[in-house]
């Protein structure tokens, strides 16, 4: 097993749960992938040169108790297409492939059997309840995001967005709008946020969200405090590349945020460097 594959197996199981990707008992080059919330498991063969060469999806079998006939074949065909679309030589691809498979399966869900009428009616009612907020988000004007340069290390990518905000409601709406309208942001491993807002009568509002990256949101908020930034929010998206970065990831998160603040004209390069040094 290559180091890249070993790291990818660990990453996939840490993101989607133990047992999502396990080595087959009959062939050490084959792994069994059970995509989250799907009824089939997929047999994937990794060549010795992976990720320089693509993996092969060699078969599938139904594992769900209530999987409908044809689900396994459909998921096998879709995943083969997905691997072909997301794989790039030298780049691990399973995380992107799983997320793309989930997206395509969600888009293709159509009730086909009469006995599922009750389930479909419940689904339709739920969809109707969710439709209005989604439409409201889609009708919102695009937030005035200023984007950082992308920062890439060991195939993980970090990208920051900042925007002026004047209320907590506006900041929360900007986050919801981004996740509702931007596919790449929606499938990011983490979307970490922080904002600082001055309200009326001397009130202030500060908040942050790690989105699963422990302590990342509070570090973003601390960066904004050091820079004395107000009435602005920042979202840093991270797409995991299959390699653990350790504490280095926090430096990259803050570096992306700082770059967005500079590009927005909220702070100069010199001020940014000075503030960074003062925190030592």
Automatic annotation (TrEMBL):
InterPro entries: Impact, Impact_N, Impact_N_sf, Ribosomal_Su5_D2-typ_SF, RWD_dom, UBQ-conjugating_enzyme/RWD, UPF0029_Impact_CS. GO terms for biological process: GCN2-mediated signaling; regulation of translational initiation. The keyword Cytoplasm applies. One of its GO terms (cellular component) is cytoplasm. Keywords: Cytoplasm, Repressor, Stress response, Translation regulation. Residues 7-108 form the RWD domain. Pfam families: Impact_N (PF01205), RWD (PF05773). Its main location: cytoplasm. It is found in: Cytoplasm. It comes from the Eukaryota. The keyword S-adenosyl-L-methionine does not apply. Gene3D superfamilies: Impact, N-terminal domain, Ubiquitin Conjugating Enzyme. Belongs to the IMPACT family. PANTHER family: IMPACT-RELATED, PROTEIN IMPACT. This is RWD domain-containing protein. It comes from Pestalotiopsis fici (strain W106-1 / CGMCC3.15140). The lineage of its organism: Eukaryota, Fungi, Dikarya, Ascomycota, Pezizomycotina.
